[in-house]
Design a protein that fits this description.
alpha+beta; Fructose-1,6-Bisphosphatase, Chain A, domain 1; 8-stranded mixed sheet; 5-stranded mixed sheet; binds D-MYO-inositol-1-phosphate; binds calcium ion
Length: 298
C-alpha cells in the first residue's frame, strides 16, 4: 500500500499523528535545553515538559475532535461521557528524559465507548499512536487496519520460544518495595536472550509490535501507558492479556504482551512463578561474598 493510500484509509491517525509529532517536537526542544525536575511521589518525577506536552495535546485534540473525551496523565479529564476517549501520556519515560537518557515518547490511545457504558468498564480500542521524537519513529494503528511504523507495515516477530526471545519489563516508581517483579526479572533473564528495562512502557509495547522484542510484562501500569501500545501489538499480530491469560482490561494491574507465538509458554511460566515452582536459587550477596572469601583462602 502506498503512503497516500494508508493515510486515506485511516480515520483518526493522520490528525492525531500530527499532534503527536508537534508534542514530540516540543519535548525535543526541552530535552536539548534541559529541564528542572519535581517529585510527584518519592521517585515519581514530573517536569515542565510533561505538562506543556499535555496542554498542547489537549488543546489540539479539542480543536480537531471537539466531541472526544481526553484522559491524560497530568490531570486532564475532559468530556468523560463522550463516545470516544483519548488516553494521553504526554511524556512516557520522564525519568529517562530528566536524566538525558534518550528513550521516551508521546502515547495517544483512542477508545470507543458505547453509550451507557459505566466508568471503569472498557470500550474498544480503535486507534493508537506512539511517537519517539529522538528517532523520529511514528508507530500508528487503527483497529482492523494493521500496525505501521513510519508508513511501513510492521509485524510482531515469529520467534517461537522464550529461550530465543528478547523481552522487556519496567518497575513502578510508586510503592516499589511492594513489587515482586525483581523475581520475574531474574527468572526471565535465565530463560531468554535477555531482559531490557529501558524505562518507557509505551515504547516497549511499540517494540513488541515492531518485532524488535518478543514480549513485555509489567505490574501496575495506567491506561495512558498502555492504550496505544495494546492495539499496536494486537494489530501487528501479537497478543495482550493479564498474567492469567484473561483479556487485558485498561484498569488491569498486570500486562503481558507478546508476539503471540510464545504467549502460552509465558502464561505457563507466570503460573509456575506464582505457584513457587521451578525457581532458580539466587545466591545472596553475603553468600557470594563468603564463597569469594573461601576461594581467596584456598
Ligand atoms: C513510566 C514508564 C516506565 C514504567 C513506569 C511508568 P512515566 O511512565 O512507562 O517504563 O516502568 O511504570 O510509570 O512516568 O515515565 O510516564
Ligand atoms: Ca507513562
Ligand atoms: Ca508520563
Amino acid at each position: 500500500m502506498t503512503t497516500a493510500a494508508i493515510a486515506s484509509n485511516f480515520t483518526w491517525v493522520p490528525q492525531a499523528a500530527a499532534i503527536a509529532r508537534e508534542a514530540g517536537a516540543r519535548l525535543r526542544e526541552f530535552y536539548a535545553q534541559g529541564v528542572e525536575t519535581e517529585y510527584k511521589g518519592d521517585v515519581d518525577l514530573v517536569t515542565i515538559a510533561d505538562r506543556t506536552s499535555e496542554k498542547l495535546i489537549r488543546a489540539r485534540l479539542s480543536e480537531v475532535f471537539p466531541e472526544h473525551g481526553i484522559y491524560g496523565e497530568e490531570g486532564t479529564r475532559d468530556r468523560l461521557d463522550a463516545e470516544f476517549r483519548w488516553y494521553i501520556d504526554p511524556l512516557d519515560g520522564t525519568t529517562n528524559f530528566a536524566h538525558g537518557f534518550p528513550q521516551f515518547c508521546v502515547s495517544m490511545g483512542l477508545e470507543q465507548r458505547p453509550f451507557g457504558l459505566k466508568q471503569g468498564e472498557d470500550g474498544t480500542l480503535v486507534a493508537g499512536i506512539i511517537y519517539d521524537p529522538l528517532r523520529d519513529e511514528l508507530f500508528a494503528t487503527e483497529r482492523g487496519k494493521g500496525a505501521w511504523l513510519n508508513n511501513k507495515p510492521m509485524h510482531a516477530s515469529r520467534t517461537p520460544v522464550l529461550a530465543e526471545s528478547l523481552v522487556a519489563t519496567g518497575f513502578p516508581s510508586r510503592k516499589r518495595h511492594a513489587s515482586p517483579n525483581i523475581h520475574f526479572y531474574q527468572e526471565f533473564t535465565l530463560r531468554s536472550h535477555g531482559v531490557r528495562r529501558a524505562g518507557s512502557a509505551a515504547l516497549d509495547l511499540a517494540y513488541v509490535a515492531a518485532g524488535r522484542m518478543e514480549a513485555f510484562w509489567e505490574f501496575n501500569l495506567n491506561p495512558w501507558d498502555t492504550a496505544a501500545g495494546i492495539l499496536l501489538v494486537e494489530e501487528a499480530g501479537g497478543r495482550v492479556t493479564d498474567f492469567a491469560g484473561k483479556p487485558f482490561r485498561l484498569a488491569s494491574d498486570e500486562i503481558l504482551a507478546s508476539n503471540g507465538r510464545i504467549h502460552d509458554e509465558l502464561l505457563g511460566f507466570f503460573a509456575d512463578m506464582f505457584a513457587g515452582r521451578d525457581l532458580a536459587p539466587i545466591p545472596t550477596a553475603a553468600e557470594w561474598a563468603a564463597q569469594r572469601a573461601a576461594a581467596l583462602k584456598s
